[in-house]
Every structure is written in C-alpha cells, then in structure tokens.
C-alpha cells in the first residue's frame, strides 16, 4: 500500500463517507438528521465520480458533469424535503419518523 | 512524503472525523455544523484534485445553500438546546455492524479490482472547457441535460411553495368581511 494519494485512496475515502452516511441513516430517527445523512451519501458519490474522472479518464468531462447535475438535483431534493419536513412539523408538532404514522393530515 | 500528501491526509481526516461526529452527536445543531465542516473538507479535496470549478460549486451550493437551509429547518422544527433521544443500543449495534460489514466487503472488492490509472498529476479542466461542453449541442455536449435540470429546479421551487405554504383560515361570512379585513393581515400570522 503506497502512501502517495491515488485513485484507491479516493475510493476508500468516498466509501468510508458513504457508509458513515448509511450508519447515520439507520440510527437517526429525526427527519432533519436523516436528511443530513443523505447529503453525506450524495457527497461521497460525487467524490467517486470526480476521482474516476481524474485518474481514469483525464481530459474528459463526463464525471464532472455527472457531479454537477447530482449537486443540482441534491439541492432541489433538499429543498423539497425541508418543505415536507416543515409541513409535517406543522401537522404533528414533531419530525420524528416513528410518530409520523399517517401520511394524511 | 511531500506537502501535497500531508494536505490530502489532513483533508481526509477532517472530512471523515466531522462526518462521524455529525452522525453520532446528540445535539442536532452541532450535527449541522459538523456536516458543514464535512462539506468544506470535500470541497478542499476537490481543490486538491485541481477541479476548481466543482470545488467552487460545492462551496456555493452545499456549504452556502444547503447547510443554511438545514440550519433554518432545525430552527423551525426543533426546541433549541434539546438533545435528541438516545437510540436503542440494539439498533445502534446492528446499524454499525451492517455499515462496517458492507464497508469491508466494498474495500475487499476494491483491492481485488485492478484499476489502471492513466495519469497521476493531470491538470483539471478549465472553466472555458466546462462552459463549452455544458452548452454544447454536438458530441459530448450537455445542453439538453442542462435544460432538463433547469426545468427540474423550477418545478422543485414551485413544489416547495405549494407544500410549505400556510393554509389560509376559512373564508369569513359575507356580512362580516368589511369589518374584519383591516386586521386580517395580522390574523394570518
């Protein structure tokens, strides 16, 4: 295992970040913190795309554009999720997933 | 071991450490701040890889936009200073085991698979190349995806307003309206 950072270091870092996000998604029961875990997972995927683009296909831009579009979609997803969370809080006075049993108001 | 290597390990340590703290702390506001540090660490790694444009987008959209959005949603939905409830040890244990076992599985697959890196120190793309490809119509152009994303963002914006809008109170009977309208601006709050 060489010390100079390369593709494998990036992949290790992004998979560690991914599973930290998965652990948070499993253990948290609060919708806002679950959303934070999802952001971690999306960021690890972005890191993967950029690492593959840099080390395996330098000179091409496809990984970069995938990352850009993932960032845009993640922003839209976060905004909609927070709107839903605020609406849920208004109805139930709680954002705990265990207490949100009924989808209908 | 050059300075570049040390900077990479420092950035990776900041990213992973604050990610771990973010999913494990019981203070939700601190979790959001640790998430902010994680996002900035990832932006630093993009800078380290010489992908300046993506790093700037990461800082603007994630560190600037989404983290502020999350912090505001915490202010709107949580009691300030209240700790999150303690989770069951069993749930924590099994989540930890699932994550660690899957992580080990992925790492074993990674080590087995022989990627052939092309270049080690290649320069990142310039902003002009990115712009021309993003607006390009020919081979390797992303104009259609760009337009689709803009429609998606517009739809998401409309959806946010529709979902989060406060329901108006029931309309008043016709004979009472002219007396109430003056103070109706206050009653909606």
Task: Sketch the major β-sheet of chain B.
Answer: none
Count of helical stretches of chain B? 8
Q: State which percent range the strand residues of chain A make up.
A: under 5%
Shape of chain B: extended
Mean pLDDT, all residues of chain B: 84
The fold-level CATH name of chain A is Helix Hairpins
Residues in helices of chain A, as a percent range? over 70%
What is the name of the CATH class of chain A? Mainly Alpha
The most extensive contact between chains is: A-B, 70 and 84 residues
Can you count the beta strands of chain B?
0
Determine the number of helices of chain A (DSSP H or I, runs of at least 4 residues): 3
Instruction: Name the quaternary structure.
Output: heterodimer
> How would you spell out the order of helices and strands of chain A?
HHH
Mean pLDDT of chain A: 87
Q: How would a textbook summarize the main sheet of chain A?
A: none
Number of domains of chain A: 1
Give the uncertain stretches of chain A in residue-range form. none
Specify the structural class of chain A.
Answer: mainly alpha
- Low-pLDDT stretches of chain B are 176-189
Q: Please tell me how large the radius of gyration of chain B is.
A: 24 Å
What does this structure look like?
The complex is a heterodimer of chains A (105) and B (189). Chain A has 105 residues and is mostly helical. Chain A has helices at residues 7-27, 31-55, 62-92. Chain A has 3 helices and no strands. The longest helix of chain A is centred in the C-terminal third of the chain and has 31 residues, at 62-92. The radius of gyration of chain A is 18 Å and the shape is elongated. By secondary structure, chain B is mainly α. Chain B has a domain at 125-169. In chain B, helix 1 packs antiparallel against helix 2 (28-48) and helix 2 packs antiparallel against helix 3. The radius of gyration of chain B is 24 Å and the shape is extended. Residues 176-189 of chain B have low confidence and may be disordered. Classes of the chains: A mainly alpha (105), B mainly alpha (189). At the A-B interface, helix 1, helix 2 and helix 3 of A face helix 1, helix 2, helix 3, helix 4 and helix 5 of B.
């Amino acid at each position: 295992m060489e010390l100079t950072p390369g593709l494998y270091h990036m992949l290790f870092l992004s998979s560690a970040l991914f599973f930290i996000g998965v652990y948070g998604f499993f253990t948290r029961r609060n919708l806002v913190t679950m959303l934070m875990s999802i952001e971690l997972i999306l960021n690890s995927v972005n890191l993967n795309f950029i690492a593959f683009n840099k080390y395996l296909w330098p000179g091409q831009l496809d990984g970069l554009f995938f990352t850009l579009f993932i960032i845009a979609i993640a922003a839209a997803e976060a905004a909609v999720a927070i709107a839903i969370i605020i609406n849920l809080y208004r109805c139930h006075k709680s954002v705990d997933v265990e207490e949100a049993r009924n989808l209908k108001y | 071991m050059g300075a570049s290597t040390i900077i990479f390990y420092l950035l990776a340590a900041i990213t992973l450490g604050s990610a771990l703290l973010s999913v494990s702390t019981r203070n939700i506001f601190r979790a959001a701040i640790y998430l902010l540090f994680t996002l900035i660490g990832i932006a630093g790694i993009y800078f380290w890889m010489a992908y300046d444009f993506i790093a700037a987008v990461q800082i603007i959209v994630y560190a600037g936009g989404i983290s502020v959005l999350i912090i505001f949603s915490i202010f709107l939905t949580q009691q300030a200073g209240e700790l999150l409830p303690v989770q069951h040890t069993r749930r924590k244990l099994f989540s930890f085991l699932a994550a660690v076992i899957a992580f080990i599985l992925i790492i074993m697959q990674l080590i087995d698979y022989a990627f052939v890196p092309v270049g080690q120190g290649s320069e990142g793309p310039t902003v002009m190349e990115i712009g021309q490809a993003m607006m390009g119509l020919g081979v390797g152009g992303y104009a259609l995806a760009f337009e689709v994303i803009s429609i998606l963002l517009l739809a998401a914006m409309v959806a946010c307003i529709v979902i989060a809008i406060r329901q108006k109170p029931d309309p008043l009977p016709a004979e009472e309206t002219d007396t109430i309208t003056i103070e109706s601006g206050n009653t909606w709050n």
